[in-house]
Design brief:
With about 70 residues, the chain is an alpha+beta fold. About 40% of the residues lie in helices and about 20% in strands.
């Protein structure tokens, strides 16, 4: 399968506060929207977990990766 021209994770704005998600890796199409509050909560949870993992495994603060 050719993934070059497609985003790994795509967010498409739906009605009002809903978003639709798709991925080049998905096994089946998703037709149910995700509410903005749920999306924010999931991203915050993921980022928190990622920050913890970087700190534990690599002794690296994620905030330092984005310093200008």
């Amino acid at each position: 399968m050719d993934y070059e021209d497609k985003p790994i994770l795509r967010f498409v704005h739906g009605d009002r506060l809903d978003w639709y998600l798709s991925s080049v890796w998905q096994k089946f199409p998703l037709f149910s929207p995700v509410n903005l509050a749920e999306l924010i909560q999931a991203v915050e949870c993921y980022m928190s977990s990622l920050k913890y993992e970087f700190q534990i495994k690599y002794n690296l603060a994620v905030e330092n990766l984005f310093e200008i």
